[in-house]
Amino acid sequence: MIKKAQTTVPIFTLITVAFVFAIILGTFAYFFGIVNSSFDNNLIAGQVNVTNASAQTVGLINNAFLDSADLLGIFFLFGVVFSILIAGFMMRDSTSKLFFMIDFFLIIFGYILAVYVSNSYETVLAVLPFSDLIIANVGNTSKFVLLLPQITVVTGFITMILTYSGIPKLKSGPEVAGF
To answer: I need a labelling partner for 68 at 20 to 30 A (CA). Which of 30, 140, 147, 177 fits?
Structure first.
C-alpha cells in the first residue's frame, strides 16, 4: 500500500500519547509515594528492619523518580515531536504537493481534538486525588498537555514546511559538469 500525505497524521498520535503519558507519569509518582510511605512505620520482619531496607531501596527510587519525572516526561514528549518533524523531512521526496490541503485539514482536525484533550486533562487533573503531586513534580509535562493545541498546530505546520518546501536530497558525490 502506498502511503502518501501522511506527514501530519502522527499529530493525532502525539495528542493521545501526551495525554496518556502525563496521566501514567503522575500515577507512577503517586504509586511510588504510597509504597514508600507504607514502609515508614518502623516495621520489623524477623531480624530485618523493613523500614531501613525500604529507605535504602524503594525510598531512593521514589526520590529519584520524583526528581526526574518531569525531565523524563518532557524528553519523551519532545522526542515524539521531533520524530514527527524528522518523519516529515524524510518523506519530502515521496509526498505529492497535491496533498498539501489534506494535511492542512488534518492539522485543523488535530487542533480541535487537542482542544478537547487539553480540556479533558484539566478536568481529570482537578478530580485526581494526587493532582497536587502532579502539579509539584510533573509541572512542565502537565503544561505541555495543557498547551497541546498550540503545540499541535506548530508541530503540524513545521512538518508541512519541512515536507513541502522542496528541500532536495544531497547527491552521494560532487557533481561535475558534463560527467
So the answer is: 147
Count how many domains the chain has: 1
| CA within 13 Å, CB half, 140 | 12
Is residue 143 in a domain?
yes
Q: What is the pLDDT of residues 140-154, one digit of tens each?
A: 999 999 999 999 999
Q: What's the pLDDT score for residue 11?
A: 92
Print the domain residue range for 17: 10-164
The answer to whether residue 175 is domain-embedded is no
pLDDT tens, residue by residue, 20-38 = 999 999 888 888 888 888 7
DSSP calls for 90-156: HTTTTS-GGGHHHHHHHHHHHHHHHHHHHHHHHHHHHH-TTHHHHHHHSHHHHHHHHTHHHHHHHHH
The reply to whether 176 falls in a domain is no
Whether 80 and 19 have beta carbons less than 8 Å apart is answered as no
Q: How many CA atoms lie within 13 A of 164 on its CB side?
A: 20
Cα(12)–Cα(80) distance, rounded to whole angstroms?
Answer: 11
